[in-house]
Amino acid sequence: MKRYKMIKPAAILLAVLMLGASAAACGSVSIYEDYEVIDPGTLPENPLGDDYDPLEPYDETVTIHVLGINYDRIGNVPETYNGAASGPANNAFNDAALRYLNIELEYDAVLTSGNYDQRLEMLIASNELPDMFVVNDAMTFSKLRNNGLIEDLGTSFWYLNEALRENYYLDDLYYPGLETCMQEGKLYAFPGVNNPNESAQKLYIRKDWLDLVGKEVPATYEELIDAARAFRDNAATIAAASQGIAAGDIIPIGITKELAAQGNNTASGLFNIFGTQPNAFFEKNGELIDANTSDEMKEALAELRRLYEEGLISKEFYTELDGNVTSDITAGKIGIVSGMWHAASYPLQSSVSNAYTPDAEWIAIELPPKDGVQSLPVVDVANLGSYIVVRRGFEHPEAAAKLCNLFYDMFYSDEAQDKYGSLATPEGGFFYSWVPVKLWYTPYSMDSYYRLEEVFEELWDAGFRIPESTLTAMCEDGFDWQAWYAQMESGDHADIFNKLWIRERDNGFKYGYPYMQAVRSGKGTADMNSVEKNGYGIYEQTIDPNGGYSYVAELSTGEKAGRVNAFYGERTPAQQTYGDWLDTYMDEFFLGVILGEKSLDEWDTFVDTYNKNGGSAVLEQVNRWYDAHRVQSEAAQ
Question: pTM, whole model, 2 decimals?
Fold first, then answer.
């Protein structure tokens, strides 16, 4: 179901009355008996053999019409390229595609990211689709597929390079994402599949606040709430450690109003501790249950109500979005937040780097057990970010795979600069956000975590230390990072340093090692220089063996367990019909309970209304999908 709905109480009341009357008149809500679960089937056999060159150019130039998104330049990407303003229609990747693949990219439109989806809808309506383009939501993808507007990419799949094909899509962790784009053996998109375990929540706590109030790092949920109360009761002491805030500004636990959202600064971690997550479907006794109407959800809401009553959550949280909570974190007002693996970089890095919170030190913990029962993060089976599709009738659908291969080779390969020269560098006009057809290689993040963690430990054990004079120089704008890397490449520790991929120097080593060295040398946050402080986020999320991505890796390899949101099919007819109303009704009731405007004595009425007005229909179809999927899975084994 869709998330992030605004609350409109008057509209809610009217909708409840109207739907309630409709249900009473009709006896029950239709559950679409003709709903048929999509059979993904299996991919076709590989027709190319083992000797296929994934970057083989076309004999004659192939022109491909695409859409561009004009993201702002960052880093060293030049303002001009080939004598004109650089941008999606004028950059190094376009030249590389022509030179190395004999593919000429022509841009039907260059749009802002905010206008892209609206323009795409207009092109669909007028049947003026470009040859290849990106779709950002499942509903638009299914509309294109169901109306016969996009090509079957089943054969084109085998044109992808081995890393994208074998180590990505065909890996057990990622295959369910590919399967969501299949129907009876046909593949209608190359999906951008994220690691589903990346949504796992951890808790992030101000360690310096714990020290101020005399509390240890919480090992249980009960200790966590005890620490939150200590933050509330010692607000004046905490506020005095930062500049520009008062005791009344201190918020023990920060959450946004978007209760069903997953990400950073949300209530997901708290819900997960109680064994639930809004809009999830969990397996129980061989079938799926709707978390929104579960006993665990009722218990979680009762606890959130208590935390709100005690002043442990902001009194105005129901007005706040992610940006508001991030601003409070930066200002030093919040002591505990829930977040994903990258929360250390956003939003917590802004707190550590803020001169007004000189002692800010965050520590991450896994969701603590409650009442002696282990807490599990809720994770998905599949997590898709986007879809690469090809217009029906385009002569060379396999060109989508070739473009993805070229991007992989230019962005991820260590030999990219040797092979493509300046075309593969930001200074030479290569900017990843302007590439119109690409796949992010999701396994890279986990591979990179293992490699960085290994290299850092080996360097440390070998005695590598950055001199203080170099650390000071690094704080200057003119510091030559590339020259430093060159010294490392040929220095005493070159055999260890050179294990890093080129991208991992800027994306890990640059700030991560200075931060690790500072911590291991006994420096507190207040004693670190700007380069050391700026390494907190990248080190905690990407390198620390107890950090953000280490947790994702442990979940992905089965070393640790999560609670699985088991439904990953496309929205059923009932979800399409009732989903928006159910989301809004749920948000209204949940927020009302937490704020004390509604009583949990009304829980049975909430569940009954929810089910009669679409909830039961949704659950019936979700279970029909679940049963069919199990049969398909068993048949494939």
Answer: 0.89
